[in-house]
């Protein structure tokens, strides 16, 4: 009789807990959905893919499921949605310039293509969030139509000409220095989305880490510099650097730049080397570079030493 009573009491307690959890799943408010100010515009197949795979986190149309409201899960979902919206919101698209819109679309493509988005844990619970090869191909084809066109004019290669030693400083505290010109070239890259070409330099600490395969994590003091030009095509179809656009820095200091995964970011634009962006821009850079986690956050490492 005593055992029977204990079972009854336990069953009653378990039933009350179950009812409580179910009630929370239907009543808990995880996040608000603010008004939509302007949605991303894209072909139907691309728009449908973004809505299905990205909107739950990156929009003001978050569709919360019952299991998202469960204890512990609700706080995780709330954190992820708030963070995602701050970085990219497809329903506040009108707040971005055309250049920012195109850049974010290419970032979304790269993150999906790298398998980093949708988040694996999200995709595991939302089977309809999986992006098919056909959808990814359609996304890439759409982005190809947005490429900046280059002209068949010959121009002198422009480089930054700064005659003073009072070099500019970025919002992150990183100061421009021409010292990188004496460093070893790490790699050269060419982006088809915005028709730019780049040369990447690595300081001795960074090059040593590359050669010794000690890049996860990179050692403090490693610096990678990227110089960016517009592409130009001559009358014979040869591609060469055209107008100088900017120079970008990534400086490794795990403690100082802990909030951006151990890397400090800086960008200096035009031959006047005008510092670009804010501290929030560095957060955006860090988010994009998560797609290169396998190489410690650095894209375009040399294929051989």
From TrEMBL:
Gene3D superfamilies according to UniProt: Cytochrome P460
Highest taxon of the lineage: Bacteria
InterPro entries in alphabetical order: Cytochrome_P460 (IPR032033), Cytochrome_P460_sp (IPR038142), Haem-bd (IPR025992)
Cross-referenced Pfam families: Cytochrome_P460 (PF16694), Haem_bd (PF14376)
Keyword Transferase: no
Ranges where the Haem-binding domain occurs: 15-147
Signal peptide: 1-25
Coiled coil feature spans: none
Keywords of this entry: Signal
Name of the protein described by the UniProt record: Cytochrome P460
Lineage of the species this protein comes from: Bacteria, Pseudomonadati, Bacteroidota, Chitinophagia, Chitinophagales
């Amino acid at each position: 009789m005593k055992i029977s009573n204990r079972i009854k009491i336990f069953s009653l307690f378990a039933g009350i807990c179950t009812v409580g959890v179910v009630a929370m799943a239907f009543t808990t408010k995880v996040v608000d959905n603010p008004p939509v100010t302007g949605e991303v515009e894209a072909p139907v197949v691309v728009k449908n893919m973004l809505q299905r795979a990205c909107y739950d986190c990156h929009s003001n149309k978050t569709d919360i499921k019952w299991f998202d409201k469960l204890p512990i899960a609700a706080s995780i979902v709330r954190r992820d949605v708030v963070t995602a919206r701050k970085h990219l919101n497809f329903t506040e698209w009108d707040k971005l310039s055309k250049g920012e819109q195109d850049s974010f679309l290419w970032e979304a493509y790269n993150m999906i293509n790298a398998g980093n988005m949708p988040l694996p844990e999200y995709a595991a619970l939302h089977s309809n969030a999986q992006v098919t090869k056909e959808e990814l191909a359609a996304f890439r084809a759409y982005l190809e139509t947005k490429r900046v066109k280059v002209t068949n004019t010959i121009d002198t290669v422009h480089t930054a000409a700064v005659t003073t030693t009072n070099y500019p400083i970025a919002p992150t505290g990183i100061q421009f220095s021409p010292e990188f010109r004496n460093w070893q070239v790490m790699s050269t890259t060419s982006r088809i989305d915005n028709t730019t070409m780049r040369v990447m330099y690595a300081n001795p600490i960074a090059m040593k880490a590359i050669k010794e395969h000690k890049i996860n994590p990179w050692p403090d003091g490693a610096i990678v510099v990227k110089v960016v030009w517009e592409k130009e095509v001559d009358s014979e179809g040869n591609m060469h650097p055209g107008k100088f656009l900017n120079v970008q820095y990534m400086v490794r200091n795990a403690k100082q730049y802990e909030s951006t995964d151990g890397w400090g970011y800086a960008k200096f634009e035009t031959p006047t080397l005008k510092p670009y962006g804010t501290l929030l821009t560095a957060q955006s850079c860090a988010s994009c570079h998560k797609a290169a986690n396998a190489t410690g956050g650095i894209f375009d490492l040399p294929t051989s030493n």
